[in-house]
Structure formats: structure tokens, C-alpha cells
Amino acid sequence: MTRLTGIALLGAGRMGQVHAAAMAAAGARLVAVYDPVTRVADALASRTGAAVAPSAAAAIHHAGVDAVVIATSSDTHVELVIEAVNAGKPVLCEKPLASSLAATRRCIAAIGDQAARQVFLGFNRRFDRGHAGLREAVHAGDIGRLEQLTITSRDPLPPPLEYVPRSGGLFRDMMIHDFDMARGILRQELVSVTAHGSSIVDPEIGKLGDIDTASVTLLAEDGAIVTILNSRRCAFGFDQRIEAFGADGMVVSDNPRQSGLTRYRPGYPGTPAPILEFFMERYGESYAAEIRLFLDCAREGRDMPVNAYDGLMAAYLAEAATLSLKLGKTIHLTGPDQEFDHV
Amino acid sequence: MTRLTGIALLGAGRMGQVHAAAMAAAGARLVAVYDPVTRVADALASRTGAAVAPSAAAAIHHAGVDAVVIATSSDTHVELVIEAVNAGKPVLCEKPLASSLAATRRCIAAIGDQAARQVFLGFNRRFDRGHAGLREAVHAGDIGRLEQLTITSRDPLPPPLEYVPRSGGLFRDMMIHDFDMARGILRQELVSVTAHGSSIVDPEIGKLGDIDTASVTLLAEDGAIVTILNSRRCAFGFDQRIEAFGADGMVVSDNPRQSGLTRYRPGYPGTPAPILEFFMERYGESYAAEIRLFLDCAREGRDMPVNAYDGLMAAYLAEAATLSLKLGKTIHLTGPDQEFDHV
Amino acid sequence: MTRLTGIALLGAGRMGQVHAAAMAAAGARLVAVYDPVTRVADALASRTGAAVAPSAAAAIHHAGVDAVVIATSSDTHVELVIEAVNAGKPVLCEKPLASSLAATRRCIAAIGDQAARQVFLGFNRRFDRGHAGLREAVHAGDIGRLEQLTITSRDPLPPPLEYVPRSGGLFRDMMIHDFDMARGILRQELVSVTAHGSSIVDPEIGKLGDIDTASVTLLAEDGAIVTILNSRRCAFGFDQRIEAFGADGMVVSDNPRQSGLTRYRPGYPGTPAPILEFFMERYGESYAAEIRLFLDCAREGRDMPVNAYDGLMAAYLAEAATLSLKLGKTIHLTGPDQEFDHV
Amino acid sequence: MTRLTGIALLGAGRMGQVHAAAMAAAGARLVAVYDPVTRVADALASRTGAAVAPSAAAAIHHAGVDAVVIATSSDTHVELVIEAVNAGKPVLCEKPLASSLAATRRCIAAIGDQAARQVFLGFNRRFDRGHAGLREAVHAGDIGRLEQLTITSRDPLPPPLEYVPRSGGLFRDMMIHDFDMARGILRQELVSVTAHGSSIVDPEIGKLGDIDTASVTLLAEDGAIVTILNSRRCAFGFDQRIEAFGADGMVVSDNPRQSGLTRYRPGYPGTPAPILEFFMERYGESYAAEIRLFLDCAREGRDMPVNAYDGLMAAYLAEAATLSLKLGKTIHLTGPDQEFDHV
């Protein structure tokens, strides 16, 4: 069987352009592009030689399209995933799969279990070289049984205030990546979620009902403890680290540096180069790895390693954390298909 | 007023010997030593030229004794502190001040508020060079407002199983250091404690009713979030780190290395020297700094920077964490003089 | 004036393919490719959509070709540079410009002084992010007056033995990069060269009249001392470091790591990820930066920042080092246009 | 045989006080102290409980003196070493053994070969934890055959100008430590010395006929190449590093840090704690290790691991480097007992 390479891209905004660059780097070919704002689609098409499609459906069914990448606004994801699945095309959808936990459940029900496992969900951070190396080291048993997992994730700057009300809140909008990361490393059921949060970076965020500083503790079935620390602002860059501690050792994925340059000055005796600034610098490479893996799995008909069910579970954990913070209680997890006991 | 230097040491066991070495390094002089096991006192006296006293009281009142260091078994601390206070001698007492929160309250009541502030309590880790540097940096405003404080504290090996039942449990026996460290850095009231724990290092510890792996979240009055991670076993040494994250930056006290030696071999390309093995290697220096500070404060009649009230507060937090784990609930803090609401 | 982007590539072997990939990453377009081995040119053309030219001259004059990149075998460089210069096309030539110092002089004489300054010579390591950052820091005065410059350059493995006799020797084949690096950082005249060398990596290399381990000391006009260390074999990867020490501080360009992953195991307490393996991993990025700079300078008609005169000077230093080793003497430098005194 | 512990200290100035502190830390006892300036001897005696001796000879023969430590001015070393040797007491002499190469030869002739091997010469840097670890790793074969050894040694500040004329010059006064370090690591004959030097830190040093910036290349019998870099001034502290590169890997002794504290601020993203300031901070510990080793060897009647012959060889290398710089030539080494060919 030959390699799949012809891709339809739905959405040519910032994330769409990221995916377009990743395709080029991964050796895939952008065949058709659709964006509700024609000018945006045109611009990308002219740079890449892709055709501009008049509709998402037209892009999906365009000649030479082997696979579909969805990077439109979040509220259109479910509809487009269903369209692509019905067209029999492998699909990679930007996260989130749907705008709520209930909508995610409904999307999975609509496409069915098997298709759900074959929708690649864009948790690209799994494919960061350092984070992936950590996960592989844990799975290979390099640190023995995993006992404590600590994920630190801090953005350089808070989002614009006007975005806050429609973000769904920090747990759904930001920590969702870390919930997925924890699940990918742990590979076992989680039994409880306890959330703490504050609005100390910017009190305006608090007035809008959200938090900007958070800590969540997850307890795994076997007793392993996961700690996730988030902040919406970090003075020294994009702080993205994971520490996995186990019976036989520890493995840490630290912030890579912009270069190997180190400065020695009085008072600054050995200052390394800055860490990477934001997600494109830090995770840019991971998008290309994601596309490669997506196309490989699609070609072989395998389940996607990160699929709609992972989207469901991450949404479920975000929901539970939101509830925990609201109630000031630990939430015991009974599965994404059931209502929460505590409400 | 001349510098105080003549010291009576009560207890010549392991901790007593640590203090004796620290005195020598600090330029203080061991004048009298008492230990219920005469052979142990004799051994230390013969190495240092100190007199062996027939009783604790005799040591306290021995000629040339300016100050008293208590390193006897925990259950004798209250009685000896009272004896030394009554003798008008400045006293440094190994932690814990008393064997329970209630006993700590009673001890403070017995000696009175002013004396309580002049009993130096041996939370020596505060004087570790890296940890002290972090605290000073935070207090100096180097990182702006403190938002997230993360303390990792892992012992190389669990204590002997027979010690577990009389240890008071991980929170009172081990995390007590970290509670004190958090308070020293934060300098503000804490409003809640949430504890999680597992027994995954050694199930036998679980059978004895204790845990060996723990995570505690403390919420400060202003919204800062403290996370403390403990493990009773660490494969690569004595893991003792603090990370203080604030509005303007971050400061980290990492594990120092045994030397500046780094090895490059295929597969191990740049392996630094090991971290320090256990508390004597890591915190040995801090005991000498502690003694120096104790004698300086005593000479000037100042309140001790770490005193009986700090012992009370650390005991209170340990009590709250123990209760939080037992109940599976967040404990809201109302002060060490009141009973917990949730019991 | 519009940006130049259409490129003719002469030579489609390993280095040609490196340049082709760099062009794509830099946003330039490969228009025509020539290689004496047609199969090799065909393969690259089919991957990139470029036309295959029947001769180097045909490629240079192909429609849409704005600039020429030469990556053929070293003995053809002079002829092709002259051809491209005569065609009025900006040219980037892989190092070395010519096979000997005398041939380099003749090439420059043939094209004339002005053209010589507009031939970009492919000392790509200058554009490595860390090395370039070090150079800029030194030029910006960050370390004050430069006093000691130390360049360490070690290959993972020696070249095949059959390559050794036609390599020109370690100084001309390998250290030539470091001579150029030193000149780019120093920006002043060098007054002497003293070389030491051994054949201890592989005695067979010694039997062929070459060395595999070398140290060269260069003295600059103002007294700054440059030390270059080379080895043909390095057990832990491609060791490429620079240390610039000055009156006010030091700046070091260290080996970057494959990722931010660090492992803690008993005996390996904090082992970072491996360094990059060889030149494509370490310097891959620098080729794209080189192409971008070449096209920018060409468009603006500026002298190339690394040009035929830099090739001449590096060849001159390599010649002097070779002579110094042979004679066991320091060689005093009088300029690349004069014969060496000591022969 | 019991452990030797009673020590006579000749010279109670700065170095004498360093040795006195080292004795205490090593568990040895200062019995008698002599200094031509009585006040200085008195001060040290009153702090330590030692007796003040009216002369060096009286100190050497004082009751309870098992061993002699010489820390008087350099011009008295020979005479005092002979006195101590004649008294049959083991002796540790501060470097240099004598004020010139010829005087060193005469001293060894005077005491004889066997005694010369039992005079411990105070090259204390050999006992620095990092440097000693490097030496042991090399000797244990951890890096395979040693091929390149690079020693960097930079003082924080130049000595007072008035000291320069009587210092003997940088090679004899400062690099002598590095010559000894190189010999201790290499354990084989050196065949040539090539020196380069400049006066760019302070031109006044140049006017006094000395240099402040130097590079020396030593060639070992088996082809290993040693590079020593010295500077009289370092803006960021006391820069003391060694890099040993071999067939199977590399081991580096880097500057230890004052603590494990690291600061992250915009522009200074991960600045470690300062390196140690000068020799007492960096090498303080090594003096205690030196005394311990001296007493152990003396008790067992073993040859000292660093003895008068090591002093002779270091002086010989310093002499050769001085001559190399003067003549601008490589000096071929024929042994410390012969005149140099090139003069």
C-alpha cells in the first residue's frame, strides 16, 4: 500500500497555517484548502499551490485528497468530523473535539466506536521530543513503577480578557493539555480529581469568574499521585516541564533552550540561553511529528494513538476539575458516561 | 556583652553528635554533656574535652555553660526546655518541641509567650545555603509576588518498619520540615490544607496505617498555592528541592552535587556528580549556621527567628494534613488554638 | 527590487542534497540541478520538481535561475565559480574555494577583487545559532576585550583511511572550519601559528602521514591567544564548542542537546539527553540561515560576509599550521600573498 | 602503630592559618607554632592552645610533635626542610620547595633521594574533590587512553604590582600548580613545552617584564597533548577547570557553585549561583584532605604521593616555559638535571 500524502485542510487561520507548515515538513502535500474567509484560504493556497475549495465538503471530496485536517473554529469540529468520517477519509481534528463533555459524548455516539478510535485528536504536545522521550522512558520501565507525576505548564501571558468568558475556563481551555499528557503517561484509570485555583495574576480574570493560577491533584487507581500546576503568566517564557518519579529513578522533561550559548558575567555567572517563547517555538516540531504519525496510522488502518476517546477523557477531567473547584471538594471519578455525584 | 560560647549538650546520640560537630565548626565550645546512657556521653566528652554531667539539670547549671542544646529523645523535650528556661539559659531544642499538638500548646503555656519566642526550635533546613538563598530572594522581592511554591522532599530509604507506628505518621515525622519551610518562605496565614497519600513504596507501611508517598496542597490567604511532595524512598539520593514562582520570575533551590565532576560516555553524555546522600551530607553545614544564629540572637536577647510558635504551627499543619487524609476532605484552618471543625 | 529565489544547484550528492533541503526551509526554489552522475541529478529533481540540466553551464543559464550554489567535487570549484561570475549570477560555493593556497590566489586573481568579495564561501558553521550568538556577543562588547578564545572541534569518527591521503591533512580538511571561526570572531590580524599534532586515535592515520589529534595556538596582533583543539574521534558525539574569555566576562557556545530530557538513576543522577550526532544534526539549521543570508546580500548587491578572501585566509592558516607541525616551529604570518619565510 | 597527630607549624601567616584550620578539620592537633613575628605566632597559639616556640628548631623538637608543616616565606623552605628531615620528622612543605630550579636540585641532593620522596610538597589542588575525582577516573581507565588534557586556571584579580618583580613570573608563580596537576593526571614523561603569553590584562605587568595571559602546550611521550590556559584576572570569579578527553569519553572538573540556587528572570532565565571566589573558598577543603593524607603516609612510612621530586619537575617545567616564551621556540625536555639546549 502506498503512503497517503494528499491532504485537505479545513481552516486556514493561525492553527491551519501551523498544520500547513507541519505537512510540508512531514513530506505530505496540501491538495485543497477551505476557510469561510476566502481571502485567508486564497493566501495559503497561493503560497502552497493547493486548490481553494468552495466548501468544507468540497475540500473533503476534492480529487487527490487522502486525509482531512480540521483546524476551523471549535464549534464546527463535530459537524466536520462526521462529514469526513462519512466520506471514509481519515481525519485529524484540532482539540477540542467538541465544545462540552455532553457534545463530545454525542459526537462519539454519532460516528460510532470504531470511527471514534480512528479520529486523530490534536493533542500535539504528546509528540514533543522531550515529553515523548519521558513517556517512552516511563513505559519502558526505566524508572520502575511510576509513583509521582508532576506537570508544570505556564503560558507567557494571559489571553485577552475578552476571550476569558468564552474560553470555558482554565481547566477546559489550558489544563486540558496536561490532563491528556498525564493520561498518556499513566495508562491507567484515575479515581479522583481535587482542584485549587486563584486569580492572582490578574484580578480582572477573577471578576470574569475564572482563575489564572491552578493546582490539580489526580489520584490513579494504583495510588500514583499526579500534580498539575498551571499559570496564565510566566515572566521568563513558556514554562513546560514534566517530572516522573518512580521506584527506580526519575526522568524530567525540562524546557529546551534556544541555543547552547551560556554567558558568564559578574552577577550572572553562567546564564544559559533563554527558553523557548511560546507554543510555536516549543511545540512547532511536534506538529510535523503528529502529521507523520497520523498518516502512518491511517495508511495501516490502525487506531489512532490519540483519538476521540482521549478527547472525551480529557474533557471529562476538565469538567471534574471545574466542579471540584466550585464545590471545594474532591471529585470521585465514575466514568465519562455518568453524571457527577456531587452536583 | 561578650559572645556566648559555652554550651551544655543534652543527648549525645546521633543528633547530639551532629550538634557537637556543628558547635566546633561554629567556634562554640562544648562545656558539659549529659546522656542517660553514660557510655555515650563519655565517648563524646573524651573526643571534645567536655565534662560529663550526672544529670540534665547538672549539665544546664554546669560552670561556664551559657546556653543549652537539647537533642534527647522527643518525649523529654518539654521537661528539659522548661528546666533550661527556668535556669535563664537560652535553649535550642531539636524538633519536635513536643510529641503532639496539645502537648506543644501546653509547653508554650508553661513557659509563657516571651520565653516561647526565645526557644530556638531546630528546623535546621531553613539554614541550608540554597533554601536560605531562595527565602531571601523571595523576601527581597526578586520574583515579585509569590504565586506558586513547590517543595519536593524525598528520603533515600524508608525508616525501619518498627519505627513507623511510633513516628506519628509521615506528615508529623517527615513533612513537618516542609510545613515549616513553606511558612518561613510565605510569611502569611494559611487558610486550608488538602492531603493525598498512598502506600506504594512499601505496602507494609500501609498495613501499619501510614503512607509513604504524599502530596499536600496549602492555600495561603492571598491566593498563593503551595504544593508539597514527599516520598519515603528515592533511588538516586536525598531529593530536596524548592521552586518559588512569582509575578516577575522564579527561583529554584536544587540539589547540590558532590563535586563539579561531569562524565561524558557513550549513552551517558554529561552525567554530573551524584547529589548528596542524606541529611548529614546535605544539611550538615546548616547545623553550624543554626548554632551561630542561635548564639547571636541569645547574646543580643532577640526573639529566635525559628521558635516554639513555629513548632506549634508546623505541628498544627501536620495535624490538619493527617485529618485531611483521613477524611478525604480539605481542612479549613482556624488557628492552632482551636479544635478542628471537621472531626 | 524583488527577492531572488530561483536557484541552480551544481552537484546533487550529499552536500547538494543538504543545500536543496536548506533552500526549501529558507523559502528559495530549486529551479535547475546538474550533476555529472545523471541518476543522482534525476533523483533530486524528481523529489523537488527542478529541471535536470545537461551541463553546469546549462544549469547556470537556465531560465528563472537567479543564483548559483556549487556543491560539486572540490577540484571543479574554481572553474564553476568563474563560469557563474561571468554569467553575472551571485554564487555560493562550498568550501574549499580551491584545492590549494596557490590555486585560491589564482582564482581570486581570475575573477578580480570585487567579484571575490561577492562569492559566498560556504563556512556554514558561522551561522550555527550558538556560535553566531557567541560571535555577536563578543562583537557587541559583552565580554569586553577578547583575551583568550578556545575552539574545540571533534568528529564522532575518523574518515575512511582511503580518504586520508587526498584530504590534504587534518589542518586543511578539518581545522579549516575552526580557522575561519576564529577569524570571524577575532576580526583582527593574526601574527603567528604554532601547531602540535599526534596520531593516537589510529596509528594507521599516522602511517599515511597525517595526524588525528591536534592543537594549534594562534596569536593575534593585540595579544589575544587562540587555542584550537581537534580530534578525529569522539566517543560521545560531535563535540563542537567555543569559549571566548574577555576582560568583563566569558561566553560559551556549548553542544546543544537532542531534547530537554534528563534521567536520574542510581549512578547516573541527572544525565542529560545526548548531544547531536554529527554535522547534519548539529549544523543542519545553519545551512538554511546561510542560504537566506546569501540571497539577501545578493539582492542588495552587498559584499558577502564570508567570501573568497575568507577562503584564502583560512587556506593560508591551514598551510601555516601544516608547515609549523612539519618544522616544529612557530610560523610568523606575513600575509597570504607571500611565501613562508621558514621553508 | 598509632596515628600521628601532634604537629609543629612553622609560619603563622595567611598560609599557616589555612594549615592550622585544616589540621583541626582533619582531626590533627597543633602542638607548637613558630613565626619570626612573635605577635603572629601568639595570636594563632591563643586561638588553638598550641605552645609558641622561640625558634623553628625549637618547634620541630617540641615535645609531642610528630610531624612538621612549613608555611614560612619561600626563601626559608630549604633550610627548614633539612632541619626537619634531620630531626627524623615527617614534613609537609608549602610550595615551592626552593626559590629556583637549581636550589631545588641542591635541596634534594642535601637530603638524599629517600628523604626527598618523603617530603610532602603542598600542591594542595591535587586534593580538590572534583580534580581528584577526574584524576582517579582517568587512572581507572574510565575514558580509555588520555589524548587531550586541557587545564584552565584564572585568578579573580592580578597580584599587587609590587609583587610582580619578585614573583618569578607567571609560569613559576601561578602555572606551577597546573604543571603539577598535568603531571599527576598524565603519569608519563613530557617531551616538549611551548609557551605563549601576553600582557593584555594590565600593560603595567608587561612593563615589569611579566605576562598576565598565557597558553602552554605540553607534549607527552605517547603523543597526548596538554593545553594550559592562565589569566591573572577573571571577571566572574576563580575559574578552575580541567577537561580530560580520551578514547572512550571525557571527564570534566567544572567550577563548583556556592549553592544549588538558580534564578529565572526575564533576560536571565536560569542563572546558577556564583562560582567560588578564590582559593580559600574553592580549595579550602583540599588542605584538610592534604593533611590527612600526609599523616597517613607518614604513619605508614610510605613515600609521599606528592614529594620533592614533584616540586623539582614542576619547577623544571616552569623554567622551560619561561625559556620557551623568551626564545619564541618549543623547548625539548631532557630532564631536570640537565641544562637546557637552547639557551
TrEMBL record, chains A, B, C, D:
Alphabetized Pfam families for the sequence: GFO_IDH_MocA, GFO_IDH_MocA_C3
Record keywords, A-Z: Oxidoreductase, Signal
Domain Gfo/Idh/MocA-like oxidoreductase N-terminal intervals: 7-115
Domain GFO/IDH/MocA-like oxidoreductase: 134-251
Secretion signal span: 1-20
Keyword match Oxidoreductase: yes
Molecular-function annotations in GO: nucleotide binding; oxidoreductase activity
Family recorded in the similarity comment: Belongs to the Gfo/Idh/MocA family.
Name of this chain's protein: Inositol 2-dehydrogenase
Source organism: Zobellella denitrificans
